[in-house]
Amino acid sequence: MAVSPISLQSLRKSQGTHETAVGLPPSTYTDSDFHQFEIESVFGSEWLCVGRQEQIPNAGDYLAVTRAQEPLIIVRSGSGSISAMSGVCQHRGMCLSASVDRSDEEMLDRPQFDPGSGRQFRCPYHYWVYDLDGRLVGAPEMAQTPGFAPEDIRLPQLAVEVWKGFIFVNFSLDAAPLAPRLHKLEAVLANYDVDNLVTVEPEVMHDVPFNWKIMVENFMEMYHNSRLHNGIHDFAPSSGAWYEEYEAGDGALFGFNQMVEADGGFNPTFKALFPPLPGITMEERQRIVFAFVPPTLLLGFQPDSAFWFAVDPTGPTSHDLAMAYIFPESTIEREDFDETLDAAIDGVGNFVRQDMPTNVATQLGMRSRFAPRGRYSWQEGVLAQFNSWLVERYEAASV
């Protein structure tokens, strides 16, 4: 059992709807003790997105990621299934996928965890070797250690679930499945064929300097679209926002932003740069879907593509952020794809250049003695939903 450093009575004031809820206590964005409580109560027991299945298409392909402060390896086995295991060598704790071939300057920074492909994982420190199932199959010079039994040693395993091509892991091997809790979002995405979309290589930003919840809040609420992004977001104004109702037990929060005309886009032309996604309706071509599978996966669906962000807190005031687009295979095969993708990314940069300093300033404000627990607009009602989801986990961990 964990105990919240902030009273549950105070946290419960943030639950409900925009009509009743107030913001979370400012210290939930800044306090080290609360951050550790949150890692245990939220990230330690929920399904965490670690990437897309097409990133590891072949046997031996693996992703090396960190989630909830844990180095992990996500690997495609010889049978074709996907498994997840700790990336920590069971000898003396070296991270198996950490690069040791780096410059002096890089060595002073965080470890670099490299993806790759192979039939085994060899610890670069003492050459202990594990197979694709995480079993120890090699340990040099250990024969003289009494009682040492390699067959008893295995990298700790995690539960794995693949939903719509996204890979999720859970530290609890008997965790309830995720997919049944996503049925509302699945219905909304039925025409998008998300399972068969293909990701480009994610870009990862390390230690983004604000709390992970600020990132989620900025992504999901549409109140700021016509204010902070006045001019560049006019193709999808805040007045066109609405959110699906949240009920306890839901595995996703989502909403819609109506566009003033079909096939809009996040770029200086305000138009989609790629062909419309096959199968979506004209109604779907005139709206954006913003979705959150808490606590890690943020999704945006526009007429010609989708984008996904994976959020991973690295401290009370920082997080890592992986970002990528997903497209139909037919779009990726276009001759002008790389050039058009660059244009799309440049266009999103206009929004990022406004969002990032705003979020950094919000983090600074949360440290203030005058930091508020403000009321919400209907255009940010999803934030009250997010609070409700969080407080449910805080309460459960404190029982």
Written description of the protein model:
With 399 residues, this protein is α+β, with helices and mostly antiparallel strands. The protein folds into 2 domains: 8-44 and 178-398, Naphthalene 1,2-dioxygenase Alpha Subunit, Chain A, domain 1 (Alpha-Beta Complex); 48-163, 3-layer Sandwich (Rieske Iron-sulfur Protein). Helices cover 22% and strands 25% of the residues. It has 8 helices and 18 strands. The chain has helices at residues 8-12, 32-43, 104-107, 183-188, 212-220, 329-332, 337-366, 381-398; strands at 48-52, 61-67, 70-76, 82-86, 116-117, 120-122, 129-131, 136-138, 157-163, 166-170, 198-199, 203-208, 241-243, 253-258, 287-293, 297-302, 305-315, 318-327. Strands 11, 12, 13, 14, 15, 16, 17 and 18 form an 8-stranded antiparallel sheet that branches. A 7-stranded antiparallel sheet has the order 1-10-9-4-3-2-5, with no helix packed on it. It has a 3-stranded antiparallel sheet with strand order 6-7-8, with no helix packed on it. It is globular. The mean pLDDT is 95.
